[in-house]
């Protein structure tokens, strides 16, 4: 499958000018590194991502626009690879990663993780060169009305290498799987390590049902990353408390266009506006994460609930 994806990328960059220009622009993207309470974060200045970071995701705006993930509305030049009969693997024309994919459902159904976490594991098992990610409808998804995953080449997000050194403790053992929690505050991170698909799904389901669902919402707020290596799945779950930090809508100098999603929580903060890239500090990132992630007390409660359910 990795080779098939490589061929798709090569073909799309040859035939699709928008994608070609945006991937070429990645080589000039500026990056800086910040140390946030001992955790490394990269900050990327990527103007093409304003499409996603600035996306209007209120119900009215979504209702008034055509869904850009529905097959009927894709650009004529965009080609895909079918996956499991009801997904389409596409090249993302507004990349963060050197190889960036979007994997939407072929049907227009809402962005929900519970019924398709197993599909996410299967995708990671097939796309072993990639980390698969899920943004909840109020957690960075710019298409909360259409179910989709994304994928980016492995080794891009600091958490992929760092997490083992940041383990704070074990939440639970369950069959062939272990659930860890990380010492990476103010981010709140749970990690499932499992060699068995069914066990990974059971553990994720337990985590899911240990999180609060906010009034008017259909699922707990979260971002999820999945990768498959050394014959096992590594699943990062970031429980959330809030969609966007206060700085997103702040006026004047306090304004910083940050709408954190999986990649930001994985350690690469995306800034589509140059002034934000220049001014953002480790303290800003800590403040943003402290707002959008669970409080230490709530995170502790979640871990206790998980232990009680298993």
Automatic annotation (TrEMBL):
Ranges for domain DUF4922 come to 8-153
- What's the name of the protein? GDP-D-glucose phosphorylase 1
Q: What are the recorded Gene Ontology BP terms?
A: glucose metabolic process
Taxonomic lineage from the root: Bacteria, Pseudomonadati, Bacteroidota, Bacteroidia, Bacteroidales
* This protein's GO CC annotations: cytoplasm
- What GO molecular function annotation could you give as one example from this UniProt entry? nucleotide binding
- What InterPro entries does the entry give? Ap4A_phos1/2-like, DUF4922, GDPGP, GDPGP1_C, HIT-like_sf
Q: What is its EC number?
A: 2.7.7.78
Residue ranges annotated for the GDPGP1-like C-terminal domain, each copy included: 181-308
